[in-house]
Predict the structure.
Amino acid sequence: MTRNLVPIGDEDVAIGAPTRLGEAHLVTLVVADADDLEPISGLAESIEASQVRCPYALRGGEAGQLEERVARVLRSRRDRRRLDLAPCVLLTASGPGQYEGQALREDGQINDGPISVTYDRRFGLSLRQER
């Protein structure tokens, strides 16, 4: 069965940009590392390097669970405070520099199902939803 995914927002915005400039909602992209979660940019970078903007407020799971796990590995209090500003979305590596995951809209509009989140280090963020 082929899923019918459609882009959310202007896909051209993502090309050549690590984040979606002009979008109002901030999310933190995280990946699994053994038993812990860590920001997608790694622990050597500040948390801002793992935060991107998107057209909708998103969440990656139950409120606060991902954030609590990521906060455990962050080294600075500043990064832990910054993490509180943007919900986490869990991604898994799908190729070199490419990550995929799913999220729900924070505003509760989930009638159309989860949103597919793709992040490519070269092209930025892409959001698609099954219709």
